Amino acid sequence: MSTRLLELQELSMYFGGIHAVDSVNLHIEENEVIALIGPNGAGKTTVFNCTTGMYTPTTGKVMISSPNVRKQEDIADCRPDVIAKKGLARTFQNIRLFLEMTTLENVMVAYHIHLKSTIWDVLFGGSKVRKEESHMVKKAYEYMGMVGIAKYAHELSKNLPYGVQRKLEIARALATKPFLLLLDEPAAGMNPKETEELRNIIISLRKQVSIFLIEHDMSLVMTLADRVYVMDHGKMIAHGRPEEIKQNPEVIRAYLGGDYA
User: Fold this and answer.
1) pLDDT of 133-178, one tens digit each?
2) How many other β-carbons are positioned within 10 Å of the β-carbon of residue 16?
3) Domains, in order of start, for the chain
4) Counting Cβ atoms within 10 Å, is residue 139 exposed (0-12), middle (13-18) or buried (19+)?
5) Residue 234 belongs to what H/E stretch?
6) Are 54 and 257 within 8 A, CB to CB?
7) Contact criterion met (CB below 8 Å) for 33 and 203
8) pLDDT at 70
């Protein structure tokens, strides 16, 4: 039986009288790629923000279960850094890189949550610190290689092409060693070639990490996702396999339009 890595139970997020997310139920199992789709303003990113500690939900639970631990816990009240250490990592709609750092340094920063050296180890040096630093660099190159950007290791992130910046965000998220990777519109602003490269990256990554995806590129969603959830006005209006979602009248009316009728 597959492990439910993430389960949102009656999740709601209210901003005053606005119900941005209203009683959402959703689950992701081990080795799945799950997509969350819907029109702008549907509440998709708010779901991500509640899941990763950016917001504390008004009501409901955010239950996680690591493949190694297999014990559910509610992380709805946890800080983002705590959630990252527990195995959830994300990217953002708007790229959030350390622009004055190199590609390598951006990835190394994310890997820092796994270092064991204390402040005293750093102050007084020693083999432990040097060994950890060497290992961190090696792992950073490994994560950059997974998304095909190792050749940009020493370039400042602000000077990278847009598509490479998007890939760097994914590499940085991977450096936290997540069991669940949340990608918020990773193909936004990409040209067809970059989108195809992203598709191949996700196909490759799904062998080692489960993926929760928000995306407006329906070609990407329908060819990658095992299951699709659809939101509109803060509510979940449909859930099913891609072929079922494409034929759902309510989804067509609210989001997909006539091309999928």
Assistant:
1) 888 899 999 999 999 999 999 999 999 999 999 999 999 999 999 9
2) 5
3) 1-87+179-261 (3.40.50.300), 96-177 (3.40.50.300)
4) middle
5) none
6) no
7) no
8) 72
